[in-house]
Amino acid sequence: MLGEASTTEIARNRNAQGFDKNKLAAREGGSVAGKAREDLEKKSGKRVVSGSNFKLENKKVKKLI
């Protein structure tokens, strides 16, 4: 959620128009979220994403024809 909020804010502040500018904003928003996750892991001493809290993808997926 932080990545999405960061991306939205960056795109709005820069008035990003078009695919390339929005792609850059998305990369920067993801970077903000990644740094926040790493900082949280350092301060808490626990990993945010682990095998115990990872949800496997559902095998049965309905496909549109």
Describe this structure in words.
This protein is mainly alpha-helical. It has a domain at 2-44. 60% of the residues lie in helices and 0% in strands. The protein contains two helices and no strands. The model has no long low-confidence stretch (mean pLDDT 90).
The structural class is mainly alpha
Strand content: under 5%
Overall radius of gyration: 16 Å
Largest sheet: none
What gross morphology would you assign? flat
Number of helices: 2
Distance between the termini: 32 Å
Helix content: 55-70%
**Low-pLDDT residue intervals, each spanning 5 or more residues:** none
Q: List SSEs in N-to-C order.
A: HH
Taking all residues together, what is the mean pLDDT?
A: 90
Q: What is the total tally of β strands?
A: 0
List the SSEs and their pairings.
Layout: H1 2-14, H2 19-44
Identify the notable features of this structure and list them briefly:
60% helix; single chain; 0% strand; 65 residues; mainly alpha; 2 helices
Structure in a nutshell:
With 65 residues, this protein is an all-alpha fold.
